[in-house]
Each structure stands twice: as C-alpha cells, then as structure tokens.
Design brief:
This protein has eight helices and 30 strands. It is of the alpha/beta class. Helix 6 (about 475-495) links the parallel strand 28 and strand 29. Helix 7 (about 520-535) runs parallel beside helix 8. The longest helix is centred in the C-terminal third of the chain and has 19 residues, at about 475-495. Belongs to the glycosyl hydrolase 2 family. Its EC number is 3.2.1.31. It comes from Microbacterium yannicii.
C-alpha cells in the first residue's frame, strides 16, 4: 500500500487535530447518525487512554467514537477521493454521515477507504470513526475478555506493555487520478561499482509505465519503461548502516506524452544476506547494536510524535546504537522513513506477541492449556496473523533500513503445534519477500533442546534474562547459564545468533555497592556480563538491549509504574547503563568487538 504523498498528480489533507469523542456506554444506539452527544474531545494522533482523568474511559473495554467534519477541496471533482488511516488500534468502523463505508481489523497497519461515490469536491461530510481496543483469541496480538463479579467487562492480554487504543497515527484525505499507480516494489543489488534497481509497478486503468532514477542531487542516473524492469546505476553509492544514501525512483503512469499519475519511491541500494553464521549487509559482516523499543510516552500513549522520534534517534546515535527492533508491532511509517534517511538498521516485527500460554504459567512455563489450539491460537488467530504479515510486508517492503522480518515475539515454539502454526507463515513471508532473512524472538522456555521451529528461520534471536528472572542477583551463576545456552544454539543450528532482549529492571537513583537488583549499578554490571559472554562467540551477530526506555504496562503487582528495564527513563533521562553502553558501542561501526571484519 502506497503511503499518501503530495505529487504533481496527487494532493492530501491532514485530518489530525482535536476530534469529538465518546465511549459507547455513554452514547446512543447509533452514535454515528448525528453529532456525538458527548462533551469530550480527544487528540489525534494519540491513544485515548491517558488523555482523560476518568478511570472508566482509561479502562474502557468496547467501542469508542471519534468524530469531526471534513471538507473536500473543491479542485478534486475529477479525482478519486480516498480516506486513509495510518492505524486504528485494534479495529475500526468508519462512517460517512450515516453510512458505514469501511472496516479494518489490525491495530498497527494502515487502511484506505474510497469515498469517491459518497462525497463531493467542495462539499463537507461528517466523519465518525468507531475504534475498539478489544483483544481476543482471534486477534493479533491475542487476549481475552472476561466479565467480573461486578458485571464489568475486563480485558486480559498476555504481553507486558499497556494495551493503548485509539487513533494513534495520522488520518488523511487524499486524491489520486482515476488511472493511477497502485503499488511499487523495489529490489536492489550491485556488482562491483554498478548498482541494480529492479522494479515492479501495478497500475489501475489503461496506461503505460515509465520510470526515472535520480541521485541525491537530482541528476538522472537511469531511466526505463514498462511495468517491470531493472535499472543499472553506474558508480553506485550504496546505502550503508550509519551512512545512508538515497536515490529517488519516480514512477509515472503515462498515455502518450500525458502524465496521468506520478509517485516517488526512496531507494537505498543495498543487499542483505545470511551466510553461514554471518549476517551480511552489502557483503560485509554486520554486528547489531541497539535496542528493543516501544512506541510509548506519557499522555499520548502510542500516539506518534515527531519530536519524540527525533529525540529517540538522537539518543540512539549518542549511545552508539546502529539498530533497533520494532517490538512488538510495526511502528509508524515516519519512523522507518527516518531510519532510511539516517542509516539506522531495523528488524521489523509483527504484532504477534503473546502467543504463549506458558507465560501464564509463570516461570514454570507450564501452560494451563495448549497455546496452539482452538481454545487460544487456532485457525482464526492464524488467519489474522497471515493477514497482518501481508499488510506489514506490503507496507514496508521498499525500506532499505528494514533488513529482517521478525514474525513473532516469544511464541511457544517449544510446544506441540508450533510447527504446524508457523511453517505456513514462514512460507507466506518468503513468498511475499524472498530477499530478507526471517527470525522470531525466542522465549526463555524455548531452549536448544525443545524448540520445534528454529530450522525454518535464518537467524536465532534470543530473549534471555539470566541474572534477573533466573539467578537474580547472582551474576556468576547467570554467566554460566548464558554461556551454556548460547553454546547449545551454536552447536544445534550453525546459524547467526543474536540477543534481541536482555536487561534488568532499574529504579533510577537507586544505588548499592553490592549486586542488588533494581540498582543502576546492577543493570550496568548485568549488561557487562552479557557482553563478556557474547564476545566469546564468533557466531554472535548482535545485541539489542531490553529496553530503550521505561514504558507503561498493565496493572501487574510486579510492575511499579511500568516496566523499568529501560536504559533511559520514560521521559528519556539516562541511567548509568546508558553511559556503559555508550562506552561499549561507540566506534564499533557495526563490527563485533575484537573483530577485524
């Protein structure tokens, strides 16, 4: 799906701002049939949960309603008129005046609705959007809804971050020509100093296609025609981690000399490959340093914020990080665009978090019932997961910063049924994008002895908490556990291995001369121990600390004001561990410590 972009043939209107707002339990039977009977207003983009002081709104389980008036530009009379939601968490129903015009399920991928036959250029309409934050065993991520003794519906979910809901990303009204470019796919490569840009264009309507590739200065370096082809780029400048270079592919739908539609695609020429136990970018070994992150900030929740985005990237650069994982859902497209422009490497992850009943069983890892069953992750869950994969890869396939797809976080890959669940998804992901490696993040319970799916994937990504959940406060024992764990994966797989989560909860300002959990010193010492072990294995290709910053979680008694594993506080103040990471990562330039690569 092409992101709305102003071009010579396309225009867009941003609908962000303050919308009327209400929750279903306080509105009439058909809230969309007229002005919302509510005194409340909500910001878009933002999660609604923390905007209000009313606990009933924050904990609401059900539908909420956003509403505003939209005026269509008068010059759009000969255009197709589309409405675009960058995300609605986790499901949406969209009404124009009194009519339902579209629905979408999935909280982190965009969707379009064609309004051409329902609205008029120069006219106005009432736009009402119903959004549900409910999670069930038929959604990704999954959850369940229960009715308590008071009759109140409550949401249970099996992931450790707060279930923020609402319109957390931008909303757009935009125009496109009737005959138009519908999709563009770009795959790049190079031989010596000559780059290749392979393209495939899908067009709606009767038109020819021509393409033009320009360099960063705007000079044309290659041209072509036809709906698919390959452009050669002499003296190519590669997109590299830490040194981004972007070309622009301008795709035009033409009829004779008339340009019917035009769309630009940023192109970074680079290759990604797994060879033996190495992860290669442009044929050179790459070592990941960075973080698992969250879209999370006070008040706005998961609402995208350009200021936070810029500052977070600055802090990652300051720390020496060269990468991050979009844990545990696709982030806003603006984040990937920024990563493209600044040479930051991204592991792009689906919203499939919580596919593990063993987590419910606590550290015993004993599930109350099988994860992969119709009781929990059954056929409907699998279908939702597959659709999410299609939407994620369709959205992000052209980003040079995205070097790997992570199709699940901490699934019950040690349980029976895991292979039957994941093998078709792996096949689908490889069909949708055969160019990028695949991974999944391994839960503690999934070991090199009992995991049932690792052979399907290209990179072993481990989430491990020795020294925190296991051997708490005993870093010598934790080091022995970690050493043996990694050695087991090395011997079993022969694949590249990286750590996608490791860390310790830390209360800023708490200090001790001993190995005391929750202190700033313990967090830094734990990370140092992990790094010491990583450096013993040439098969190790990366380290991404959990987490970049503290973040909100559900009301568990083991969390005080959220998850505190961030090396930065929720308001982005550094803990001692941030300085320790900076000392380790600065100057590595994507290479493993001690490596000559």
């Amino acid at each position: 799906m092409l992101k709305p972009t102003p071009t010579p043939t396309r225009e867009l209107v941003n609908l962000d701002g303050v919308w009327r707002f209400g929750i279903d339990s306080r509105l009439g039977e058909q809230p969309w049939a007229g002005p919302l009977e509510s005194p409340l207003e909500a910001a878009v983009p933002a999660s609604y949960n923390d905007l209000f002081t009313d606990a009933e709104i924050r904990d609401h389980v059900g539908w909420v309603y956003y509403q505003r008036e939209v005026r269509v530009p008068r010059g759009w009379s000969d255009e197709r008129i589309l409405l675009r939601f960058d995300a609605a968490t986790h499901a949406a129903r969209v009404y124009v005046d009194d009519e339902l015009v579209g629905e979408h399920i999935g909280g982190y991928t965009p969707f379009d609705i064609d309004l051409t036959e329902r609205v008029q250029a120069g006219g106005a309409f009432r736009l009402t959007v119903a959004v549900s934050g409910e999670l069930t065993n038929e959604t990704i991520p999954p959850g369940k809804i229960e009715v308590g003794m008071t009759g109140k519906r409550t949401q249970t979910y099996f992931h450790d971050f707060y279930n923020y809901a609402g319109l957390a990303r931008s909303v757009w009204l935009y125009s496109v020509p009737a005959t138009r470019i519908d999709d563009v796919t770009v795959v790049t490569g190079f031989e010596g100093t000559t780059g290749q840009v392979e393209y495939r264009v899908e067009v709606i309507g009767d038109a020819d296609v021509r393409v033009r590739l320009t360099d960063a200065a705007g000079a044309v370096v290659a041209e072509g025609s036809g709906a698919e082809g390959t452009l050669s780029v002499a003296d190519v400048v590669l997109w590299k981690p830490g040194s981004a270079y972007l070309y622009q592919l301008t795709v035009e739908a033409v009829r004779g000399d008339e340009v019917l539609d035009s769309y630009p695609v940023a192109v970074g020429v680079r290759t990604v490959e797994v060879r033996g136990h190495e992860f290669l970018i442009n044929g050179e070994p790459f070592y990941f340093t960075g973080f698992g992150k969250h879209e999370d900030a006070a008040v706005r929740g998961k609402g995208h914020d350009d200021a936070y985005m810029v500052h977070d990237f600055q802090l990652m650069e300051w720390s020496g990080a060269n990468s991050f994982r979009t844990s545990h859902y696709p982030y806003a497209e603006e984040v990937l665009d920024f990563a493209d422009r600044h040479g930051v490497v991204v592991i792009d992850e689906t919203a499939a978090v919580g596919l593990n009943m063993g987590v419910v069983g606590g550290m015993s890892g004993t599930p109350p019932f099988p994860t992969f069953s119709e009781q929990y992750a059954g056929a409907a869950t699998h279908a939702a997961h597959a659709q999410h994969l299609r939407e994620l890869i369709g959205r992000d396939k052209n980003h040079p910063s995205v070097v790997m797809w992570c199709i699940a976080n901490e699934p019950a890959s040690n349980e029976d049924g895991a292979r039957e669940y994941f093998e078709p998804l792996v096949d689908l992901a490889r069909e949708l994008d055969p160019t990028r490696p695949l991974t999944y993040s391994l839960v503690m319970f999934a070991t090199f002895k009992n995991d049932q799916i690792v052979d399907l994937f290209d990179v072993v990504s481990m989430n491990r908490y020795y020294g925190w959940y296991i051997a708490t406060g005993d870093l010598k024992t934790a080091e022995m556990y970690l050493q043996g764990d990694i050695q087991g994966w090395v011997e079993r797989t022969g694949k590249p291995i990286m750590m996608t989560e490791y860390g310790a909860d830390t209360q800023p300002g708490l200090h001790s001369v001993w190995d005391q959990a929750w202190t700033e010193e313990y967090q830094a010492d734990l990370l140092e121990m992990y790094h010491r072990v990583f450096d013993r294995f040439p098969q190790f290709v990366g380290e991404q600390v959990w987490n970049f910053a503290d973040f909100a979680t559900s009301n568990g008694i083991h969390r005080v004001d959220g998850n505190k594993k961030g090396v930065f506080t929720r308001d982005r103040k550094p803990k001692s561990a941030a300085f320790a990471l900076r000392r380790r990562w600065r100057g590595l330039d994507g290479r493993k410590p001690g490596s000559d690569a």
